[in-house]
Amino acid sequence: MEIKLVDSELKVMDVLWKQGDLPARSVAQVLTGELGWNVNTTYTLIKRCISKGAIQRTEPNFMCHALIPKQAVQEAETNELIQKVFDGSADKLFAALLGRKKLSPQQIAHLKQIVGDLDEVTP
């Protein structure tokens, strides 16, 4: 089952992914500091994430636990982008990313390593 999160909900999830389980008030404090959000806004978004199955709430202290890993969301968002914008073609996305700016030799070496690792896995 794929859970679709909007950008504001992803901000809430990002706090949990970076810091681990936290009370809702701590999540609110982080997002107030980083984004200037009202505490009630954060609580509303946490409750939306709970209803979508992305966050589990436990007591005491309205503890929040991310139920979905960041990697799963990144993969789903990337797949959606590829389908929507690049006609389902991952190589078109890759070409667009590479064409955006001059890459450093280290970045090029890292990309070559990633592609090389894919060659080893793919029969």
Characterise this structure:
A hairpin with a 4-residue loop joins strand 2 and strand 3 (63-66). The chain has a three-stranded antiparallel sheet with strand order 1-3-2. The longest helix has 17 residues, at 105-121. The radius of gyration is 18 Å and the shape is elongated. The chain contains six helices and three strands; from the N terminus they run αβααββααα. With 123 residues, it is mainly alpha-helical.
Short description:
This protein is mostly helical and 123 residues long.
Helix content: 55-70%
Distance between the termini: 29 Å
Beta strands, count:
3
- Beta content comes to 5-15%
**Molecular shape:** elongated
The low-confidence parts are none
Q: What order do the strands of the largest sheet run in, or round the barrel if closed?
A: 1-3-2
Taken in chain order, the helices and strands follow as: HEHHEEHHH
Q: Mean of residue pLDDT?
A: 90
Largest sheet: 3 strands, antiparallel
- Seen as an oligomer or otherwise, the chain set is single chain
Number of helices: 6
